[in-house]
Automatic annotation (TrEMBL):
Occurrences of domain O-acyltransferase WSD1 C-terminal (ranges): 295-439
Domain O-acyltransferase WSD1-like N-terminal as annotated: residue spans: 6-251
Organism: Dactylosporangium roseum
Recorded metabolic or biological pathway in which this protein acts: Glycerolipid metabolism; triacylglycerol biosynthesis; Lipid metabolism
Pfam families: WS_DGAT_C, WS_DGAT_cat
Family: Belongs to the long-chain O-acyltransferase family.
Domain of life: Bacteria
InterPro entries: Acyl_transf_WS/DGAT, CAT-like_dom_sf, O-acyltransferase_WSD1-like, O-acyltransferase_WSD1_C, O-acyltransferase_WSD1_N
Protein name: Diacylglycerol O-acyltransferase
Catalysed reactions, as listed in the record: an acyl-CoA + a 1,2-diacyl-sn-glycerol = a triacyl-sn-glycerol + CoA
Protein EC: 2.3.1.20
């Protein structure tokens, strides 16, 4: 893995970093031990397991060829103490508040792009681990993969992914002709696909963001970040899916839509005259995706039907929109701009990414990402994992990011916001269970 080159998309995430918008994502894992585990033992165990993962001891270095490119290389000055931190929370301190403050701190881009924060002092002997990984290092699925390697019995990372079989070799002039034809065909497909994505993206650019003035996207500040955690019962989500159809993800998007509508109404805004567009990241990973690719992403754009007063009608609208996106495929359409970034040479990125950084709010208002977690029981130092709250990064100009994860009997939702732009984040959080209850026909 030494000197492995970053993909163009990985490099783009590095270039999207700004002082007010650090591009790291996170996860807050909460453990309920049967008996108290000494913090020193937990820290030593995490340190031992991190030390077995080569990627965690690498930093980014720039490359001469291609100009402006980057590669992973061992950090000669690596020190575990720079990345693994222990915090004892004082009585009455909210875990989410501490995690939000820690997420606001940028990572040192000259060091390996990760941190682990062990939060102790929680009630009933509970403890939590906050994982911070730069988006250049991992997407959501890669974050889960690395997190699993910290769990008991998973330090080997599991079985390696099978590599695709090599194609039969062709010799001589015939082989050269075939290889040339393939290369030209792939280049043509890439150019045609890129032009199609770029055209679609430009056609969906808005002259202004659609959220009301209560959410001011201008000049977000990393120091003003706030994190609110929400938990839903998985059985309630599945009950709505059985009642009205669609996927569990469709239901959750409709729930968020309902929470937004309630929030806007409480702020004396008129949802019927407004709109909120969400970017929905989609993984492009497959069994043949090489392990050296850290980000393999695309996405969809989804206009949330906040104008619909009837929650069931809103769910049907969300389902229709998502079905249309899926039918078109994740390699085309305006939400496929990560694919476009992944095809862009490093020199071109240096010119275009600063423009894209500021253009984000003209394409979408918020990110809603769903990160799957394996449903099997997991432990750390023998303590069962109970909750996993994902945390989405806030790109430049974005005031709110929503991340969802289902683990066993709970759906965990992390609302990550610029506190100046969304000072009443609790109202959105309170609207989520109320919106789910409205879909199931139960009283809030």
């Amino acid at each position: 893995m030494d000197d492995e080159r970053l993909s163009p998309l990985d490099t783009a995430f590095l270039r999207l970093e700004s002082p007010g918008a650090p591009m790291h994502l996170g996860a807050l894992a909460v453990f309920h031990p049967r008996e108290r585990v000494p913090p020193g033992r937990l820290a030593a165990l995490l340190g031992e397991r991190v030390a077995r993962i080569p990627a965690m001891r690498q930093r980014v270095r720039t490359t001469w060829l291609p100009p402006g490119g980057a590669a992973w290389a061992p950090d000669p000055a690596f020190e575990m103490s720079r990345h693994l931190h222990v915090h004892r929370l004082r009585r009455g301190t909210a875990m989410a508040a501490v995690a939000g403050e820690l997420m606001a701190e940028p990572l040192d881009l000259d060091r390996p792009l990760w941190q682990l924060h062990l939060l102790t002092g929680l009630s009933e002997g509970r403890f939590a681990v906050l994982v911070k990984l730069h988006h250049a290092m991992a997407d959501g699925l890669r974050t889960v993969e690395l997190g699993l390697r910290l769990m008991d019995g998973r330090t080997d990372g599991g079985p390696a992914r099978p590599e695709p079989a090599d194609a039969p070799a062709l010799d001589g002039a015939a082989g050269g002709a075939v290889r040339l034809a393939r290369a030209l065909g792939q280049a043509a497909e890439t150019v045609a696909g890129s032009v199609g994505i770029a055209t679609s993206v430009l056609s969906h650019v808005r002259l202004a963001a659609l959220l009301p003035s209560a959410v001011d996207h201008a000049r977000p500040s990393a120091t003003a970040r706030r994190l609110v955690l929400v938990r839903l019962d998985t059985r309630d989500v599945r009950r709505v899916r059985r009642l009205h159809g669609g996927t569990e993800h469709d239901v959750l998007l409709a729930v968020v839509t309902g929470a937004f509508r309630q929030w806007l109404t409480a702020n004396d805004q008129c949802p019927e005259r407004l709109g909120i567009r969400a970017f929905i990241p989609v993984s492009r990973r497959s069994r043949t995706t090489g392990p050296k690719r850290h980000n393999v992403l695309s996405g969809y754009l989804c206009d949330l039907p906040i104008e619909q007063p009837d929650p069931v009608t809103a769910l049907r609208t969300v389902r229709t929109t998502m079905d249309r996106n899926k039918a078109a495929g994740f390699s085309r359409g305006p939400g496929a701009f990560p694919v476009l970034a992944d095809r862009m040479p490093a020199p071109a990125q240096r010119l275009t990414v600063p423009l894209l950084r500021r253009a984000g709010p003209l394409l979408f208002d918020t990110t809603i990402t769903n990160v799957p977690i394996p449903a099997r029981p997991m432990t750390l130092a023998g303590a069962p994992l109970r909750h996993v709250y994902p945390i989405a990064p806030l790109a430049h100009g974005q005031a709110l990011g929503i991340a969802l994860s289902t683990y066993r009997e709970s759906v965990h939702i992390g609302l990550h916001a610029d506190d100046r732009a969304v000072p009443d984040l609790d109202r959105i959080a309170d609207g989520i269970p109320a919106a789910l209850a409205a879909l199931s026909g139960s009283p809030a």
